[in-house]
Design goal:
6-stranded antiparallel beta sheet, Pdz3 Domain, alpha+beta
């Protein structure tokens, strides 16, 4: 039963690692475990053959090979029996090899499990980071004509997914945007937006994602580095905030 459970564990861990980096390296623990399982199977097969030799002689591992008078038994093949017994339980015997292999298999299983946990943790981290850069966190509430934001292609209703290094996980109620814009005068800020497509049909096409390049600057003819009254509101207030053409909501931000 122990062997069957071990094999099941190897198969289970292989399934865990099929779509991960566990199986991308020639020295991966799953491959090692299968190689060890093959060695274990070979040892067990040889032991079974030797035990069959003993059964053919009518003896096991412990029966005496001398008769009641102390003479070697004449009714069995003594050489075959001694050879089989020595191969099974001798100093360099198969049972020692089997014990060693089982220990290595256990270590390989621990390595597989540890690697699976590492991969799953990395996958969760990657998914979190992906979500942070693909989830809108602000909506363009108003945009100033002829402003740098307008020139970059920003439109009212656009949803902001990423503003330079700022995303849904670190925008600090949108206040981080003002700080970044203030530090980036004359420098390009890449802004990833999501724009709802317009359609005359009942079924709207999916929104379009694009990257705009903003360059905060003065002297464009209005206030602010990107163009006040360009303003953003948090996505979670989209339904509760009355959109004004030139005024930012109390919880929004003017650029």
């Amino acid at each position: 039963m122990e062997m069957e459970l071990t094999r099941e564990k190897v198969v289970e861990m292989e399934l865990i690692g099929e779509n991960s980096s566990i199986n991308n390296d020639n020295s991966n623990p799953v491959k090692t475990a299968h190689e060890l399982m093959a060695q274990k199977d070979a040892i067990e097969a040889e032991v079974a053959e030797l035990e069959q030799v003993l059964r053919g002689q009518g003896v096991g591992m412990t029966e005496p090979l001398v008769d009641r008078s102390g003479f070697p038994r004449a009714d069995v093949n003594l050489v075959a029996i001694r050879t089989a017994r020595a191969r099974i339980i001798g100093e360099y015997a198969l049972r020692n090899d089997h014990k060693c292999i089982m220990s290595q298999i256990e270590q390989a299983l621990h390595a597989i499990h540890a690697e699976a946990q590492r991969v799953n943790s990395q996958r969760l981290l990657d998914n979190k980071q992906l979500s942070q850069t693909t989830t809108p966190f602000a909506i363009v509430n108003a945009i100033a004509p002829d402003s740098p934001a307008k020139e970059a292609g920003l439109q009212k209703g656009d949803k902001i997914l990423k503003f330079g290094t700022i995303h849904t996980g670190n925008h600090e109620k949108l206040q981080a945007l003002n700080a970044l814009v203030g530090q980036s005068e004359g420098k390009i800020i890449e802004v990833t937006i999501e724009r709802d497509a317009s359609s005359s049909t009942e079924q709207l096409p999916p929104p379009t994602r694009m990257v705009l390049q903003f360059t905060p600057r003065r002297g464009w003819g209005g206030r602010g580095l990107l163009g006040q009254p360009t303003s953003l509101i948090p996505c979670d207030q989209e339904l509760s905030v009355k959109q004004a053409q030139y005024e930012c909501d109390y919880s929004g931000v003017l650029l």
